[in-house]
Protein: Class I SAM-dependent methyltransferase
Amino acid sequence: MMEDNLKEKVKSVFGKNADKYVTSAIHAKGDDLPLLAEWLEPQKTWVVLDIATGGGHVSKALAPHAGTVISTDLTEAMLENTARHLKEEYDNILYVIADAESLPFLPESFDAAVCRIAPHHFPHPEKFIRETARVLKTGGKFILIDNVAPEENEWALFMNATEKLRDTSHARCLSKNEWRQLLQENNLKEIQSLDRKKTFQYPAWVRRTAESEEQVRRVEKHLLGADAAVQEYFQIDVENGEVRTFVIDEWMVMAQK
Structure:
């Protein structure tokens, strides 16, 4: 029941904020987007799966290089909004409402799959990885990009608490070691990876999903109340008693089935 509630919350939050994710700089202009085609080296014959597309940035980045991109999302309102933005420019993107943990596709259907800045919303990441491996062709490539929790448990708890306070549809950011274990368990062999620090502009970040000014203040109080070690790790920048920016870890990994 909790899983169903979380997925309904995801639909609610992302349905209401669909256009913000199309225009969000952190989603639309990430340094990782140009790397997708570089790492995957897609062919014009390929069928590529974009899991939990959100604002459609992965689909947009790969459509010029692949034969067909299947752009999926759990939230119908989000997918409809994304389709409106992309349909005029790209005629090789198809849009399918789909749950990342129960993909509506046959085994060995895709040459490549990508999931970017979404898995922290999935209640059961192990189902997501199992499903991705199932629908990939043997030899197919999979790129995962997401915010990751530090290996230090206290810092991981702080990061996930911050995300949950700001976005009630948040499930959990996994650590790199947790993701690596899931990849290995599903016969997905890591080929290359990239670590980067991602800076959030706090006012824009918190208001993308916060539903009230009270919620904004709760998140800020949580950040300001962090101990010195946590504030240093997340590089929480405070000016005149207000949080301006903070920094989290993001991981990009490519694996092959």
